[in-house]
Design goal:
Keywords: ATP-binding, Lyase, NAD, NADP, Nucleotide-binding. With 308 residues, this protein is α/β, with parallel strands linked by helices. 43% of the residues lie in helices and 16% in strands. It has one domain: UDP-N-acetylmuramoyl-L-alanine:D-glutamate ligase. The protein has helices at 42-53, 68-71, 96-103, 119-131, 141-155, 175-184, 196-210, 242-255, 260-281, 287-292, 294-306; strands at residues 5-8, 30-34, 58-64, 80-83, 108-111, 136-138, 169-173, 213-218, 221-226, 229-234.
């Protein structure tokens, strides 16, 4: 096994990612979010609100078309992209060509949270992962599609280590998803929640094997695996706020498509600062409180950048 290079982020490491924003907002990152299904309508709203607060200039939101009336008033009409759906109200494979067309104008495609485990929807997500060349951030139910696809390739004795050569893929994993993906590539590594060393080794190995970046919310730290490195941001992070974190990460990735590790790291630090500022004002801070404090967190990052 390669030696793991570990980087600790206790303060801003990459000041170049705290930009002077362009005056024209549409010249900033273009983000395509594919999310939502019946019963999970609030998930993409949190992601989109967080992405806008973190600086995204243009967001397009693709969702099952039967939810169009539901989202009216929750999201700006100009970002709405109703898509073909299954009988159960999740995205259907007929959405693929539309998503592919819109992805050509996007800097990042974010897919997964709230899309359901419907078999046809899983097929759609695998097509997005394996056929669309736009850089892709996958989380939530999308990880199931990734795991299923890799298992199918393994059983067919087809290589999977070159699957994402034409684009950058970023994943957000929990412990169960990490274990399932390691199993899908044939790893026999035993991992438990309290074994931090095993988790780090598993993340590093999985990242190298699939050629992907991984974000993992661990015990008192958030980990990033990628570029043959492991970047650690210490702190206690409430997992119930993960959609806010995902939205900030997606925003930064869409604005900095060529510097993936640095973009994710800076996004995590912004989330940490926004959460800390929210808790200072209200110890029982909610997701809304953290989203409102994203601009204040950005100001804190800018002050740090001035001294670097």
């Amino acid at each position: 096994m390669k030696k793991i290079e570990i980087i600790y982020q206790n303060k801003l490491l990459y000041k170049d990612f705290i930009w002077n924003k362009p005056l024209q907002k549409f010249s900033r990152g273009r983000l395509l979010v594919i999310s939502g299904s019946r019963g999970k309508i609030d998930i993409p709203v949190q992601i989109i609100e967080s992405a806008f607060k973190a600086g995204s200039g243009l967001v397009t939101f693709g969702y099952p078309r039967s939810l169009e009336k539901t989202y009216k008033g929750l999201i700006p009409e100009e970002i709405s992209l109703p898509l073909p759906e299954t009988l159960s109200g999740s995205l259907s494979v007929d959405s693929f060509s539309i998503i592919n067309d819109f992805s050509r104008e996007a800097n990042l495609l974010f897919v997964g949270p709230g899309i359901s485990q419907n078999a046809e929807t899983m097929h759609l997500v695998w097509n997005i992962l394996s056929k669309i060349t736009c850089n892709t951030f996958v989380a939530g139910s999308g990880i199931s599609a990734l795991t299923i696809g890799i298992n199918i390739l393994k059983k067919a004795n087809k290589p999977f280590n070159q699957l994402f050569e034409q684009k950058t893929v970023i994943t957000y994993l929990n412990l169960g998803e990490l274990k399932n993906l390691l199993d899908s590539i044939g790893s026999k590594q035993e991992i438990t929640e309290n074994d931090g060393s095993a988790i780090r080794e598993g993340l590093f190995n999985l990242s190298n094997e699939l050629g992907i970046y991984i974000v993992y919310n661990g015990k008192d730290e958030i980990l990033i695996a990628g570029d043959n490195k492991l970047l650690v941001t210490p702190g206690h992070f409430n997992n119930s706020f993960k959609l806010v974190l995902m939205g900030i990460i997606a925003s930064f990735l869409s604005q900095n498509s060529k510097n993936t590790l640095e973009s994710i790291a800076t996004a995590i630090l912004l989330f940490k600062y926004a959460a800390e500022l929210a808790v200072e004002k209200n110890p029982k801070a909610t997701k809304i409180d953290i989203i409102k404090n994203i601009p204040n967190g950005m100001l804190k990052l800018e002050k740090e950048a001035d001294f670097l």
